[in-house]
Design brief:
This protein has 322 residues and is α/β, with parallel strands linked by helices. Helix content is 29%, strand content 21%. Strands 1, 2, 3, 4, 5, 6, 7, 8, 9, 10 and 11 form an 11-stranded mixed β-sheet that branches. It has a 4-stranded parallel β-sheet with strand order 14-17-15-16, covered by helices on one side. Helix 1 packs across helix 5 and helix 2 crosses helix 8. Bound molecules: threonylcarbamoyladenylate and magnesium ion (MG). The site of threonylcarbamoyladenylate has 29 residues, from strand 6, strand 7, strand 10 and strand 11.
Length: 322
């Protein structure tokens, strides 16, 4: 039997929301109701906070997360809208529609939150508690559904408490969610709209704006699994114990081999949450240094190490294979 103390459950009143905003700005995790399901939220601009979402979810892979914003104006600081995307947002926001758009170069959103992709999924939720929280925090919030890996999406605060216990700093109890089904996720290939995940808004309603929706083409193997996953130009050599001539080094831990032209250390102290937070940004930095090869030190395959190793293995795979 699982018992939950649920000392972290709080009514979603003005006090609860103010406290939740404070926790989010301090890098903590807050579960909150949306009109679809409860989300497990963190400051989307804080790599470390985003890493702790993955840690709490206990998922062995980094999935790109939905970034919640109050509306189009705030989303526009993060992503570039096309005219079609703008019409979708004007028709369905606030509401259960997520739109995947190109990341702006100066977007403050953590690369880990978008799993290293050049796109970001944005959504403006309609639930009053979610909206008040977004406005109080004044930051975009990364929030996947607030369930542990392999469990169903939560529609009450109690579900979240049962799943996470004390792993989340605060659970805002706003009662049962009304829709109970996740948002519909729409992406684009060129300017064609693609249904990436069916959800709370019916295909037919979206097609009134977009015309016939395409299914993901061969470029996308599973919902949300884009081939455009960031792959470094440089070749990766995994589990490297030393550095070969001309290599840059992606290090982990305190004992770093000498000889690399450029070094980034995922975590000097060997902290896997810190390593996850740094992973995508450091890969990009090493790639940008112009090196042809990157040696990667071994990462322990436990906790977030499993997701880090999954991502590194993909980045090291021969091009065209994913
Ligand atoms: O209703 C919802 O959407 C809930 C509430 C909390 O807002 N959130 C939710 O998040 O369901 P999550 O993380 O469980 O699902 C995110 C979906 C996944 O299918 C993911 O692959 C897709 O969005 N996604 C996120 N970013 C993407 C991107 N850059 N490209 C393609 N798909 C993306
Ligand atoms: Mg989910």
């Amino acid at each position: 039997m699982v018992t939950t103390t649920a000392a972290n459950l709080r009514p979603a009143d003005a006090h609860g929301i103010a406290r939740a905003a404070e926790i989010l700005l301090g890098g903590g995790l807050v579960a909150f109701p949306t009109e679809t399901v409860y989300g497990l939220g963190a400051d989307a601009t804080n790599d470390r906070a985003v890493a702790s979402i993955f840690e709490a979810k206990g998922r062995p892979k980094f999935n790109p997360l939905i970034i919640h914003v109050p509306g189009v104006a705030e989303a526009e600081r993060l992503v570039a809208f096309t005219p079609l995307a703008r019409r979708l947002a004007e028709s369905f926001w606030p509401g259960p529609l997520t739109i995947v758009l190109r990341r702006k170069p100066d977007s403050p959103v953590s690369l880990l939150a978008s799993a290293g992709l050049d796109t970001i999924a944005v959504r403006s939720p309609a639930h009053p508690v979610a909206r008040e929280l977004l406005i109080s925090a004044g930051r975009p919030l990364a929030a996947p559904s607030a369930n542990r890996s392999g469990r169903v999406s939560p529609t009450t605060a109690r579900h979240v408490a049962d799943d996470f216990g004390e792993r989340v700093d605060l659970i805002l109890d706003g009662g049962a969610t009304t829709l109970g089904l996740e948002s519909t996720v729409i992406g684009f290939e060129w300017d064609r709209a693609i249904l990436l995940r069916p959800g709370a808004i019916a295909r037919e309603d979206i097609e009134m704006i977009t015309g016939p929706l395409s299914s993901p083409s061969g470029a996308i193997s599973a919902p949300g699994q884009l081939r455009s996953h960031y792959a470094p130009r440089a070749r990766l050599r995994l589990n490297a114990a030393d550095v070969e001539a001309g290599e840059a080094l992606l290090a982990f831990g305190p004992d770093v081999p000498a000889g690399a032209r450029t070094v980034r250390n995922l975590s000097r102290t060997g902290d896997l949450t810190e390593a996850a937070a740094n992973l995508f940004a450091m890969l990009r930095e090493l790639d940008a240094s112009g090196t042809a090869r990157i040696a990667v030190m071994p990462i322990p395959n436990e906790g977030l190490g499993e997701a880090i190793n999954d991502r590194l293995a993909r980045a090291a795979a021969p091009r065209g294979v994913e």
